[in-house]
Structure formats: C-alpha cells, structure tokens
Amino acid sequence: MATNFVDRVVLHVRGGHGGHGVASVHREKFKPLGGPDGGNGGKGGSVILQVDPQSTTLLEYHHSPLRSAPNGRPGAGDERNGADGADLVLPVPEGTVVKDSRGEILADLVGAGRTFVAAAGGRGGLGNKALASPRRKAPGFALLGEPGDESDITLELKTLADVALIGYPSAGKSSLVSVMSAAKPKIADYPFTTLVPNLGVVTAGSMRYTIADVPGLIPGASQGKGLGLEFLRHVERCSVLVHVVDCATLEPGRDPMSDLDVIEQELAEYVADESLGGKPLAERTRIVVLNKADVPDALELAEMVKPDLEARGLEVHIVSAVAHTGLKDLSFSLARHVQHAREEIEAAIAPQRIVVRPKAVDDSGFSIRKERQGDEDVFRIVGERPTRWVRQTDFTNDEAVGYLADRLNRLGVEDELFKAGAVPGSTVLIGPADNAVVFDWEPTLTTGAELLGPRGTDLRLDDGGRATRAEKREEFHRRKDAQREAREELDAERKAGLWTDRDPVEIDGDD
C-alpha cells in the first residue's frame, strides 16, 4: 500500500571537495618575474541537516537518497581565490534522529532551526602566494584541495509527543485524538485505517500537551509483524502511554484483559534508545482507557474489568469517543501526569558544564604503529595533520614532495620512525587503512629543486640592491687599513734584511 509518510531512510551524503591552489608567477611589461601570485582554492560545501517545522516526512530522501554538496572552485593567477562551494541544507522534521552505519546516534534534532553537519566540505588548497615566505620566495608548487567527508547515515523520525495512544487496530485511538484535539485523522470501521502517526494538541485548563495516535499494534509487533515495528519508535519520546482498549470487539478470543497483556508484552520486548526516552517503555506511566462505552454491552464489560485493572495499580478511565463521555476527566488526568513527567525530566537534566582539555605538552599530534604485512614490517603514521598534508600534496611535483618531507621532518616524524625501528627503505603508510599513501622511506629526501638553492627559492629573485653611503664608506676605510698594514709589514721585512739586492750574475763567455 502506497503512503506519503516515510520515517526511516538511509542517506548517502558527500561534502564538496576543496578547490586546488594554483602556482603562478606575476608577469607584466618590464617585469617578467614579479613573484608568486597564485590564489587559494575555495572550500567545499557541507551537507547540513536542519529542522524545518513545515516538514513532516522523510519521503523526499526515500526517492533521492544520494546528496552531494558543490565543490570549491580552484584558485587562479593574480592572487584570485576560488569561490567556496555553497552548503547543501536538507530540511528534516523535528524529532529526526541521525545514526551512523554502526547504529550509533550522531544527533537528535529537536527544536526549530537545529542543525547538524552530516558531511563537512574539504578545505581549499593554498596557492604559491600564500606559501611564499622570506625563506621560500618563489614556490613552484601549490597545495591540493582536500576531499569532502563521505558516509552513509540513517535518518529515523521519532514523533515528539507527551502522550501516546496505543492498542489494537480499530480500538478507537484516532477517534479519541479527533475529539480531544483539533486533529482530523482518517477514521473508518476497518483495521489499520491509520497508517501514519497523528498528532494533536490538547488543552486542559492552563496545561497544553501533545497527543499521538500510534498505528495499531498486534502480537509480534516488536519483532516486525504488521505495522508495529515501524511505529513503535514513535512512542520512545512519550512520557505517558495510554492503552486504548476496545470493549465492544466481536472477535473471538479477545477481551480487555488479554488485549492489555498482549500490548504490555510487546512494550517489554521492544528495545528503545535509552537516550531518547529516559526509561524503558514498560517502566513509563501507563493509563488504561476502556473505550466505546456508548455500547451497552461494552459499558457493562468495562465496569466489570475495571476493578481487576485497578488491582494491578493501573489508572482506568471509561470513555466514549462517540458520545464524548469521560473525556474531560481523562484530559485533566493526562495533564497531571505530563506535568509530573516534565518536572522529572527538568530535574534530571544536569547543568551544562564546559570542560577544557588542554593539549598535552608532549603531544606530537601523531603516532606510529608497527604492523606486519606479509613477510615485512610496515610503519603506519596515524594523525590528523600528517593525513591532511598527504592529501594536499601533488606527488607529480618534486618540490611539493620535498615540502611534504620538510613538514613531516619538522613534526618529528623522522625521529619517531628511527625510534620505532625503521631503516632506510622501510615501507611507511600515511592515511586511512583503506586509502593510505605508501612510501619507501628515506631519511633525507633530495630533489632537483635543491640544486638551484634552498627549496622554494629562486636566485633570480634575490635582492641585489645598491649599497648605502655608509656601507661604501666602511668598505673604503677597510681597504685603506688593509693597504697600510701591508706596507708596514713589507717595510719591517726590508729592515730585517729579508729583502736585499740580487747579486750580479756572471756569464762565462767563450774565449
């Protein structure tokens, strides 16, 4: 049976990739090498879930479960940064619970406008203008943009209501909601008329609370039989559970006591999220409503079983949704229980404390694990910064690879690899286990760029400015002093007899 109500979907979300930085050199007339001017890449857009009061179902994501945010734009020359990717905002109903692929709760979206970043966009890469420094005046490389987060999340809609009406199909739950509030659910005389939870607002004196009509439960609902498992999650947030019992049913083998026992058993077997209701369903406040008292036989049966139910410690109300009898007492009784439940919740909420955990002095920001793969030892570097740096590196550019080596060396990776037992040629992995970058480690990485000077420099851009007048005067006096010292040294050597006239050379001639 087709329905426009969907309360559980699996959504694949992907944040936008960051734009790449660009390596560019400024050029203009009479100035062919004006320095680096490459712009940064833009940040990728994020996928954000936001509570929308106008949204009531997850149907849209059932039909389109793949959602991706736009990528950031790459940078350009002349110091032009790339545009950021726009965030993709997905409206969800209030009460949506976000879970990861392992079933752990990531967020409980309650409150209009509440947001949750389901997939963060990647950072944009830096251009060579941003990478320039006094020591690296002309970087010939830029950083790549980081990929956005990507994951599968489960969205579950769990109705926000104070009171839940539960019971067998056709017990009169929708009729009670329609007469106690302004809600207009579909009402008919056949089972499973209600296919979606119906919410209504009830006013009892100065007290206002919400009431939900949960689709009919049957034996085995907690194991998925019928529609029960799909909608039992909608009672997890409710503080008060109201058993609506049909006292006028003509089905053989059914009576108010057995109907109540069956539903109680289903509540006890259903495992709810502890963080969404506080107590197990079987431990919450429960009230029994014996409905259809406008039928004479039903009224007689209700009055007969009421003492037995009260002997169990249950509060019992005999009502008729058709004749509107007993509804006022029921509404005020529910208001008292809701008020008491709200006070308990407020008392249990501890004041929020801000915990500051400073970074340890000896925290290097990474760790090295020695693993055995096949017949060799490999060393895996685990850490947020090394992983991010690897993602930003263009491995087709030798200078960029050298820059990565410098960053890792400054972080202390080489020293820790030596301590872990790595030797030149050892296999080193950086990144997640399913997408790691593999290196044959060498303690010192040298590239062709170093032959032209320190990495990131260009001798053609060195400052060859003219000397100042003071520097010229100092150089002149330095030369004069050197000449005077040389003359004095030669004169001293001459006086000491080290310098004499050469004896004449006799040349024997032939007689």
TrEMBL record:
Assembly behavior: Monomer.
Keyword entries, A-Z: Cytoplasm, GTP-binding, Hydrolase, Magnesium, Metal-binding, Nucleotide-binding
Subcellular locations according to the entry: Cytoplasm
Domain named OBG-type G: residues: 161-339
Biased composition, class Basic and acidic residues, residue ranges: 457-505
Binding of Mg(2+), residues: 174, 194
GO molecular-function term, one example from the UniProt record: GTP binding
Membership in a protein family: Belongs to the TRAFAC class OBG-HflX-like GTPase superfamily. OBG GTPase family.
Cofactor(s) needed by this chain: Mg(2+)
Pfam families: DUF1967, GTP1_OBG, MMR_HSR1
Origin species: Flexivirga caeni
Entry's EC annotation: 3.6.5.-
An annotated GO cellular component: cytoplasm
Gene: obgE
Name under which the protein is recorded: GTPase Obg
Residue positions binding GTP: 167-174, 192-196, 213-216, 291-294, 320-322
Major enzyme class: hydrolase
GO BP, sorted A to Z: ribosome biogenesis
Residue intervals of the OCT domain: 358-443
Protein role: An essential GTPase which binds GTP, GDP and possibly (p)ppGpp with moderate affinity, with high nucleotide exchange rates and a fairly low GTP hydrolysis rate. Plays a role in control of the cell cycle, stress response, ribosome biogenesis and in those bacteria that undergo differentiation, in morphogenesis control.
Disordered: annotated span: 65-88, 454-511
